[in-house]
Amino acid sequence: MLKAALIGYGKLGKLIRDLAPRYNVQIHCIIDPNLKDHYHDISAEALEGCDVCIEFSHPSAVLENIRKVAEQGKNLVVGTTGWNDKLPQVQEIVDKRGIGLLYGANFSIGMNLFLRLIANAVREFDAYPEYDIAGYEMHHNQKADSPSGTAISICKEVLANSSRKTHAVYDKLDRKIAPEELHFASLRLGQIPGTHALCFDSEADTIELSHRVRNRSCFAVGALHAARWIRDKKGLFNITDMVEEMYQARH
């Protein structure tokens, strides 16, 4: 059985703990500076006997958490978003310490398959210039980053597969949007776990592709799959690498 340490113990951490036995994962320890009766910091003592760490904390803490886990030679799953500007530093840490690290904007398996559908859809609609493209995302009002990491991933897929869109615009516009701009809006509201949509619009009709999270268990399940996948690997990986390998294994 895989032994995993949880770094960060919010709503998602609790779900990972509850679902872990179904995926043959044992929660070895919980590390959270805000909790009593658990480890408050990443240390050799806390991670002794641990196979993999699963990190869902806050963007401001990610880099330091990765450094501390890497110093202990443990592989790591990072589900926190909003820190991609630090990827070069993370790559250096991974290479120096010889560990495996898997990160992602969204750990829902469904969302990662949705990204594959988006890429195909954009290529299909690209042949018909009468269809414009835009998108939006909605999340709960406690989310720390905007746009979401998943929104950025969706826009990357659009830009990689469209001959007409050259860059994304996430902020509000006080002007007419340019034809080559991809507008992707964000909304923060209540308790919404996560909604992402991409729209293709013409004078005659609108096609909308959307992914709506009903509850956070999809992220927990993805993280548990990721912990098992990264266990014996070395290097820096994205969740899309895991999904692609899983997809190829079934086809």
List the helices and strands and how they pair.
Layout: E1 2-7, H1 11-19, E2 25-31, H2 44-47, E3 52-55, H3 59-71, E4 75-78, H4 87-97, E5 100-103, H5 109-125, E6 132-139, H6 149-161, E7 167-169, E8 181-188, E9 195-201, E10 206-212, H7 217-230, E11 235-238, H8 239-249
Parallel strand pairs: 1-2, 1-3, 3-4, 4-5, 5-11, 6-8, 7-8
Antiparallel strand pairs: 6-9, 9-10
Rg computed from alpha carbons, rounded to a whole number of angstroms: 19 Å
Order of H and E elements: EHEHEHEHEHEHEEEEHEH
Query: Whole-number average pLDDT?
Result: 95
CATH C-level name of the largest domain:
Alpha Beta
Q: Given the structure, what is the number of helices?
A: 8
- What CATH architecture label of the largest domain applies? 3-Layer(aba) Sandwich
| Beta-strand content bin | 15-25%
Estimated structural class: alpha/beta
The percent range for helix content is: 25-40%
Task: Please mark out the parts with pLDDT under 50 across 5 or more consecutive residues, or reply none.
Answer: none
Sheet with most strands: 6 strands, parallel
Please provide a brief summary of the model.
The chain is an alpha/beta fold and 251 residues long. 37% of the residues lie in helices and 25% in strands.
Describe this structure in words.
With 251 residues, the chain is of the alpha/beta class. It folds into two domains: 2-107 and 216-249, 3-Layer(aba) Sandwich (Rossmann fold); 109-212, Dihydrodipicolinate Reductase, domain 2, CATH 3.30.360.10. The protein is built from eight helices and eleven strands. It has helices at 11-19, 44-47, 59-71, 87-97, 109-125, 149-161, 217-230, 239-249, and strands at 2-7, 25-31, 52-55, 75-78, 100-103, 132-139, 167-169, 181-188, 195-201, 206-212, 235-238. The protein has a six-stranded parallel sheet, sandwiched between helices. Strand 9 (195-201) and strand 10 form a beta hairpin. Helix 1 packs across helix 7 and helix 3 (59-71) runs parallel beside helix 4. The protein starts with a strand and ends with a helix. The relative contact order is 0.17. The mean pLDDT is 95.
